[in-house]
Amino acid sequence: MTDTKKLEADRMNGAETGLPHRHERSLFSLDSPIRYFDQIADVYALADLQNTTGGRARRVRRARVMELFDKPGGRVLDVGCGPGVLVSSMLSRGCEFWGLDGSPRMIEQCNQDFGGRDRTHFVVGNATALPFEDGFFDAVTCLGVIDRIEEYALAVREMARVLKQDGTLIIAVGNLLSPAAFWRNYIYSPLVALVRPFYYGLLKKPRKPTLSPIANLQRASTYQKLVEARGCAATDIVYFNFDLLPAPLDEMYPDFAVSVADKAEGLRFGSLKWLGQAFLLKSKKLGAGLLQQGPQNPGEGRNESDEQQRTAPQIQDHLPGAYQRV
Question: What per-residue confidence (pLDDT) applies to 99?
Fold first, then answer.
């Protein structure tokens, strides 16, 4: 048995996790996000190394984030840091790194892997109530998390609050306009979730950790309005994860699916960039006064005078290149 498979087997049986054994849970139950990520904390980072579309998507996402990142030497907060996927990249830029995650096991993993390094800090916390003072960070990132947060607008407000003026906010969000993302999120995954309990029950197999199959996909324009309402100006929208094979074909033929995704990555330069299953939205925090005056919900409290005074620039639909300037 490989080390990865052994970790997987131990995790499934509740070894060293402080969690109940698998037979104590219903085959039909779903794990809360915190419980789910607690259970996969010790193997989560290994997925980045796999030649699958999921592993590839995470690698590409990290690369695109670092291309957008413009605060070397600054204080950086990663909301939903997982096992510390951005730590090494940020430290190499001379940054001081703070990682926050709702999963205690993920933070344990961070401390185990990076706790001995200078300029690293890790804390268990909630994205909708960040335990930091106003204007503390030069940059805030949030990757693969916000579309699992019910009160995502409140999380955006909190991330904007802890940013310094002219600080950088980079958020990754599942793309509602992507046919592949829509199929996987709203059709394929829910169907699999319905069938899975019967499969494990018939074969008398232990149930694997199971997260709710539905994430909150959104259009980029929705998040542009959210950050503007919190006193930030959107500057870049970058689409990624051009996995064009619909599930489960991408899982059945991973090598072919990764090859197709590699070739399709060039779509981010043109009019078909919306086919990417996710996007990164980069924004800059404006003056503190605008942050206090912004409406809680996009569009609320705006009038013609508000629109004339607003300094956030508008989307330029025809700008060439992978980065859609806004």
Answer: 98
Q: Using an 8 Å Cβ cutoff, are 148 and 101 in contact?
A: no
User: Looking at residue 196, what is its pLDDT?
Assistant: 84
Residue 83 half-sphere exposure, CB side, CA atoms within 13 Å? 15
- Count of CB atoms situated within 10 Å of the CB of 123: 15
Nearest to 234 by CA among 304, 299, 306, 310: 310
User: Which run of H or of E encompasses 67?
Assistant: helix 53-68
CB atoms within 10 A of CB 3: 9
| Cα(60)–Cα(23) distance, integer angstroms | 37
Domains and their CATH numbers in the chain: 3-325 (3.40.50.150)
> Bigger pLDDT: 287 or 16?
287
CB count within 10 Å of CB 311 equals 9
Q: Which residues pair with 173 in a beta bridge?
A: 279
Query: What digits encode the pLDDT tens for the residues 131-166?
Result: 999 999 999 999 999 999 999 999 999 999 999 999
Kindly report each contact of residues 193-197 with a partner whose C-beta sits within 8 Å and lies 24 or more positions away, as own/partner.
193/30, 197/27, 197/28
d(CA 68, CA 283): 10
Residues in the chain: 326
What number is the average pLDDT over the span 40-61? Answer: 92
